[in-house]
Amino acid sequence: AVARSDKVTARNVYELALAAAWRGSGEQPLFLDTVWDLVLLLDVLALRPEVDMTRVGVTGFSMGGTITWLLAVIDPRVAVAAPVSGVQGFGWAIDNKKYHARVGRYPLVFEIAASDLRGTKTAEIDAEVVTGVWNKLLPGVLSVYDAHLSLPTLLPRPLLLATGELDQSCPLPGVQQAADSTRAVYLAWAQEQRRLQLEEEAEAAAQAAAEAVAAEAAEAAAAVLAEQSGSVGRLGSRSLGLESSKGCTPQEGQGRSPDLRDVAAGDVGHGKGHRAEVGDVSRSGTASREGGVPYQTWSSSMNGSAPSRTATADGYGGSAAAAWGAVAAPAVGGSGELEPLLADATEVGMSAATAAAARAAALAEAAEHQRREQMAIEGLLGSQFRYVMEKGVEHKETDSMRRAVEQWMHQHLKGPWMRERLAARFTGPE
Fold this sequence. Notes:
GO terms for molecular function: hydrolase activity. Residues 40-117 form the Dienelactone hydrolase domain. This is Dienelactone hydrolase domain-containing protein. Residues 234-316 are annotated as: Disordered. The structure is a single chain. The chain is α/β, with parallel strands linked by helices. The protein has a domain at 10-194 and 385-427: Rossmann fold (3-Layer(aba) Sandwich), CATH 3.40.50. The protein is 48% helix and 13% strand. It contains 14 helices and 10 strands. It has helices spanning 10-22, 32-46, 63-74, 90-95, 100-105, 107-118, 127-137, 147-150, 172-228, 260-265, 272-277, 352-384, 399-413, 416-427; strands at residues 57-61, 80-84, 159-164, 233-235, 238-240, 281-288, 294-302, 308-313, 319-323, 385-390. Helix 3 links the parallel strand 1 and strand 2. The model is unreliable at 239-343 and 425-430 (pLDDT under 50).
């Protein structure tokens, strides 16, 4: 008999090949030979000038999903991977004795293995037998490249993992274990990418601020030179008309210009004297972390109303705005706390209710900042890793799974052929 039947079929031939591999044929027909064939296929494609090897996507269902997973792990030329109902936790299945559905897909090799290991044709197929078969046909799978160990190594390549909730061939807890370990690695990557984005934004803002200060200093210096030469200059937005210098100095009625260094070191933005005329007080400053990248800014103002101060932090911190006298909200989940705002509310006549309202606003702003940061990180994560679990679905590729895979490939490969295929898939022929 051949695999419980006298009829020779393609399935039975495959099972015979598995049994032969168990008994030492030297071949590896359970996934690995096919994976090697596809590696060679990629070698051939790489030689063809019309093939863009930076846009190679692989997907498959069931055994095709398993091969997709293993091929992507072994060959970095796979730019995008989307295994469907093929990722499984081999070790989890053995530990929890959830291998029966997988054994039932090709039982002959397990029956022969049980007979060889136990010395009887009626031996039970238990965890020891299954472990022996997998170690023989997939050497290293339990210790080196099981799903939860190998899928995280695909980072930062885009990976979509799809499975059915009730798939007995790929039990959900084993798939979830792989998805969780993979997501953790991709999440750490997304957080680092967001940190780098914020750092670049901070550097750009610091550069812009430095250029603005330099421009105002140059404008102030030009105004001083204009005054020295007897012409009319401008400081900020205010015209500087020259008055008679008589009586200004005791020596020959000649006024003395301030040193240019004094001008650059002073309040060149608006001029303290002019600001005092309209009853305003304005202050601003920056604090830097190691490396000179500004990460906090603060400003305060008093314009005839309740004075206030704002503070902002970058990274995974938060931002807060509070009245003088209130303590700034700590950065929620941040890289550091915002510095306390030390002025006493009673000294500036602020009521307790106003201070409390300002503090509440600061907390709300910090929470909103955290929410936006979390959304940014989740967006980066979702661009590279997606886990699709269809509730109530057994070992089956659903229409929604197919749509998810097609959209994933289109998003990351963006070839014109994919756009045409998507148009035909979702709109149908005209």
